Amino acid sequence: MSSSPFGQRSEDGSTNWSDSEDECKLPLNQFYPYIRCALCCGFFIDATTITECLHTFCKSCIVKHFFHSNRCPTCSIIVHQTQPLYNIRPDRQLQDIVYKMVPFLEELEREQMCKFYRDRGLEVPKAVIVSPPVVLKRQKKDTVPQSVFTIPPELDVSLLLEFVGAEEGINNYKPLERRYVRVSGEATIRHVELFIRRKMELSPTCQVDVVCGDHLLDHYQSLKDIQKAVGEEALQDGLLVLHFGLVLPSQV
């Protein structure tokens, strides 16, 4: 009968577990893919998870990333068309695991946070939230603060929605007060229809037909593709003009 590091193996091949056996210890680097940020390659600090794909990063890293992109750095999924910060959440459970696995990490971050406040003559908060220090740059008086996320110019599409009327029998709807809309070029006609339905409070039985020029548009078509296909004919002062009407569903 041969010995086994996890117990005694009998002649029939079964393993007898010993109460005094040692725990199996694994090196920390085997867990690096699960506890390190793909952006800074350091251990998670203020672990923050994208709700759309469940990939996790340091909070400061993913916030900085979303200044110039609306896609996940790992899988490239679109997190949100215009405001990706809406779809991130703190992952405190994972952060607690990281602090338990990496000795002195939490203590070091707390010391750096306290130093950050003291160096700037600020009062150290009583409940210090562990996060990496951020160097704040003073803005000039003439500069206008930028928004958290700016739509990339190549995806920027400005719409002009023109209401052409409703079929007889459709009466209960509100006028579309917001005719000019700025959206991402990757938005589809389905997104435009949902916007119209919400603003005009349309009945589910009411059908929205969207037309560009002489073309009746399908739900799956993106605004970027429509603008390329139709060309300058569909533009009015740089705006992509879409006409829409309300009709009753056809009876089969």
UniProtKB/TrEMBL annotation:
It is found in: Nucleus. Residues 1-18 have a biased composition (Polar residues). Its main location: nucleus. One of its GO terms (molecular function) is zinc ion binding. Keywords: Coiled coil, Isopeptide bond, Metal-binding, Nucleus, Phosphoprotein, Repressor, Transcription, Transcription regulation, Ubl conjugation, Zinc, Zinc-finger. The keyword Repressor applies. It comes from the Eukaryota. Residues 1-21 are annotated as: Disordered. InterPro entries: PcG_RING_finger, PCGF6_RAWUL, PCGF6_RING-HC, Znf_RING, Znf_RING/FYVE/PHD, Znf_RING_CS. Pfam families: zf-C3HC4_2. GO terms for biological process: negative regulation of DNA-templated transcription. One of its GO terms (cellular component) is PcG protein complex. The keyword Ligase does not apply. Residues 37-76 form the RING-type domain. Gene3D superfamilies: Phosphatidylinositol 3-kinase Catalytic Subunit, Chain A, domain 1, Zinc/RING finger domain, C3HC4 (zinc finger). SMART domains: RING (SM00184). Component of a PRC1-like complex. Interacts with BMI1/PCGF4, RING1 and RNF2. Interacts with KDM5D. Interacts with CBX4, CBX6, CBX7 and CBX8. Transcriptional repressor. May modulate the levels of histone H3K4Me3 by activating KDM5D histone demethylase. Component of a Polycomb group (PcG) multiprotein PRC1-like complex, a complex class required to maintain the transcriptionally repressive state of many genes, including Hox genes, throughout development. PcG PRC1 complex acts via chromatin remodeling and modification of histones; it mediates monoubiquitination of histone H2A 'Lys-119', rendering chromatin heritably changed in its expressibility. Within the PRC1-like complex, regulates RNF2 ubiquitin ligase activity. PANTHER family: POLYCOMB GROUP RING FINGER PROTEIN (PTHR45893). This is Polycomb group RING finger protein 6. It comes from Sphaeramia orbicularis.
